[in-house]
Amino acid sequence: MARRLGSRRRNQNQSPCLLYSSAAGDPAPYGSATLRRLSTGQLRRVALPDPPLRGRFVVGSSHGWLATADERSDLLLVNPLTGAQIALPSPLTIKNVRGRYSTDGALQGFDLMELNLETQDCDAKTYDKDLPLDEGRFYFYVRVAMSGDPSSSAGNNNSCVVVILHMPRNHVSFARVGDTRWTWIDMDWRCNDYTDVFYDDSDGLFYAVVDTGDVHTIDLNGTSPVVKEILRPITSEVSCYNKYIVRAPWGDILQIWRYDYDKAANCKDGRDERRTLRLEVYTVDVAEQKLTEITDLQDHVLFIGFNTPLFVPAKDDYPMLTPNCVYATEDSMSHIYCSKFGPHQLAVFNMTDGTCTDLFQDDRNSWLQWPLPIWIRPSFSQDRYLMWMFKANTS
């Protein structure tokens, strides 16, 4: 049996928190964050290590950790409850990234090269030249997924693996905690155009969805990556570029297709916002090689965005959440690039009646700020600590 990458049992029913920067005018320290627990509505401020949160791009969350990119485009994993922080390999070690330097040797920016899966190398053609230091992160980290708690296994053969999707065509690279370089997965000509990826504890594999609907498994347990196509392309025309993939609590692999209206697509009005028009959820049928649309989440709530998608049971465990709804944060790279400081939608899509509403009708400050709000679910031990924090905050 393949060794599982950082696999740990955890409570799948814990309520997530929304993490965001302090609202405009809030005297909170520049490096602090706010945790908002949806199950109770309580708020708690937490201090984060340098560099300050408001200078970071928060591009992922999993196992109670955030994936953040600082203003030099370095990727840092940070635990908002403990303050622990782990640096990942330099973006200069990504296969198609080149540094641009001043006359005295200081790094000033990046060039992003085209990648060729047939030659397994970079093309001479440059995809984007002279990216400033703080803009490289929007190209290098389209999605970030983790195989486990990055603090629990550093320095051994079962270390947490971090997978990134990166431009120009959403290629995939990975690194184990403690590695010094990113490794590009280049053994298959189909290894690009991914829109989302997650790690499945049940079989020790990463699952990735392509913009045409096909699904690949990525096995990083051995000495070399193994990529398998388990669902063939569903369509040759891409009508939805925002596709997510997740394992449901009842065992099915699901795809979520998010359709948006983005008035800021031409970057002429940075204050216009992206709005979710509708969501479609599909069961992946590997045996029949098809997708089957569903409208019932079996009384669960699904949370999507830059976080690894996650479910919680609403009917019994968290009755204050609306069952069969999808809670979605902003994660459109094109909209973020055009409208960094918002507004950014926090939406609730009801699968039963097809309606889409704002999560906080009377509180837009929390999502007008940078970095973008993100869902995060603490690990079991962290959740007990978080309960203590909220209790202490109200005493």
TrEMBL record:
InterPro entries: KIB1-4_b-propeller (IPR005174). Residues 1-21 are annotated as: Disordered. Residues 1-11 have a biased composition (Basic residues). It holds the Pfam family Beta-prop_KIB1-4. Residues 38-350 form the KIB1-4 beta-propeller domain. It comes from the Eukaryota. This is KIB1-4 beta-propeller domain-containing protein. The lineage of its organism: Eukaryota, Viridiplantae, Streptophyta, Embryophyta, Tracheophyta.
